[in-house]
Amino acid sequence: MAHVLVHADKVAAAKAVSAVIRDLIVAKAKAGQTAVLGLATGSTPLPLYAELIRLHREEGLSFRNVVTFNLDEYEGLAGDHDQSYRYFMEQNLFRSLDIPKGNTHVPAGTACDHARTCADYETAIRNAGGIDLQVLGIGRTGHIGFNEPPSARDSRTRHVHLDEVTRRDNSVFFGDLARVPHGALTMGVGTIMDCRRVELLAFGAGKAEIVRRSLRSAPSADCPASWLQEHPACTFHLDPEANSRL
Ligand code: F6R
After folding, report:
1. Is the model's pTM score more than 0.85?
2. 100 C-alpha vs ligand 1 centroid, how far in Å?
3. pLDDT, position 1
4. What are the CA-CA distances from residue 94 to residues 147, 171, 173, 243 (Å)?
5. How many Å lie between the centroid of ligand 1 and the Cα of residue 184?
């Protein structure tokens, strides 16, 4: 069963999750090991990334021994496209940390051979020792990563078609629905379920209904986030609005 923590607001939630990430990085460094983080994009993790940058700048938290894997990337967008998730990560996190660029991984949206690219991504995660902690947001369709319904519990990194609800939601970033790609490469539900720990963040009244379905309906492919009920170490971090229907 997933745990639920309701925070005063999204800044408080970001502080709580950043403290967990800091403790992981510090413990791994002490053991001479690398911390492997799974990261998300979108508006939800922005306060978390701001807090991680603050911890780096003001409290000396180093990311030299951190390896990251992002959940997903839009099909057809190169890393220098201002709506690509690689670009998002550079702007909102990586460029403000001391993480070596080679330690950061985002699926290659422009690769021609999706199957090979996705299989290589899975191999890279395995070779890094697996993901210690995965940060997630949640889409109004119940997607985690870009695992739109229906997504099987054992799905792996693959090419997917985006739900029209998701395309409309994300069109605010592109300025025009027509510019939003129809496809993406995403870690699968199974890839996410393999992460040793999962921290999902959801903020605002617009997420309340899907948070309720994810935690209260029987796990099924129709609401991919509902599979997280079966994860042994998953916490939903909510603000009071996202918690309002639980
Ligand atoms: C982002 C991702 C998505 C988002 C979700 C919520 O890498 O995989 O699952 O987390 O679409 O997006 P926001 O945070 O913009 O509401």
Report:
1. yes
2. 25
3. 83
4. 25, 24, 20, 31
5. 13
